[in-house]
């Protein structure tokens, strides 16, 4: 086990208190990134004091090839309403930062007043863009984790804690592949 349910709960409460102070005079328009962010977002918004709205998005990645180079195109659905809002983008895990960076810039271009990023886990060692979450729970150095909404790709999301997993995939019970 990497992080217990108690450790997660304690940190979520601390983050919610900080976000509540920062958004005390305005509505916090939370946009949760599926799938990894759903459990963190649910617990976080329950503890934010003040006005909160909730929306969800799911990024989609398409490889585009032009000649000898290729690029990843990021789109998302469903469309979220951000114009005139103070957006809090919520991610379960930020690694490369590419998706979060894209979404934050896209929301500003769509008329968001402000955009901040909250990440439960920050794997800054894997960062490919200059991005730092405004709020983060824990720095992650492990290669692959599951639990508390994070999965492989679907198993283990229901666990109340976060655990380290050997390899990138699970074929059976998550407990079979944990250190």
Helix-strand blueprint:
Layout: H1 5-22, E1 28-33, H2 38-47, E2 52-66, E3 69-77, E4 86-94, H3 98-109, E5 114-122, E6 135-139, E7 145-146, E8 163-164
Mean pLDDT: 88
- Looking across the biggest beta sheet, what order are the strands in? 3-2-1-4-5-6
Counting helices, strands and paired strands, the structural category is: alpha/beta
- Can you tell me the CATH topology? Rossmann fold
Main pleated sheet: 6 strands, mixed
As residue ranges, the low-confidence spans are: 168-179
Please, how many domains?
1
The rounded distance between the terminal residues' Cα atoms is 8 Å
Which range best describes the helical content: under 10%, 10-25%, 25-40%, 40-55%, 55-70% or over 70%?
A: 10-25%
Number of continuous helical runs: 3
Architecture overview:
With 179 residues, this protein is α/β, with parallel strands linked by helices. The chain has a single domain (5-62, 71-142), classed as 3-Layer(aba) Sandwich (Rossmann fold). 22% of the residues lie in helices and 32% in strands. It has helices spanning 5-22, 38-47, 98-109; strands spanning 28-33, 52-66, 69-77, 86-94, 114-122, 135-139, 145-146, 163-164. The strands form two sheets. It has a six-stranded mixed β-sheet. The termini are close together.
């Amino acid at each position: 086990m990497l992080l217990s349910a108690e450790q997660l709960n304690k940190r979520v409460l601390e983050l919610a208190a900080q976000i509540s102070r920062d958004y005390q005079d305005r509505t916090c328009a939370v946009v949760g990134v599926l799938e990894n962010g759903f459990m963190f977002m649910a617990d976080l918004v329950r503890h934010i004091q003040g006005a909160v709205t909730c929306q969800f998005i799911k990024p989609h990645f398409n490889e585009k090839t032009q000649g000898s180079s290729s690029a990843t195109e990021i789109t998302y659905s469903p469309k979220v309403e951000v114009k005139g809002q103070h957006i809090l983008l919520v991610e379960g895990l930020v690694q490369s930062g590419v998706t979060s960076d894209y979404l934050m810039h896209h929301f500003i271009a769509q008329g968001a007043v402000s955009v901040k990023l909250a990440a439960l886990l920050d794997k800054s060692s894997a960062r490919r863009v200059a991005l730092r979450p405004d709020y983060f729970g824990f720095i992650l150095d492990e290669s692959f984790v599951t639990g508390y909404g994070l999965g492989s790709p679907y198993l283990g999301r229901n666990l109340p804690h976060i655990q380290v997993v050997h390899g990138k995939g699970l074929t059976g019970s998550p407990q079979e592949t944990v250190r």
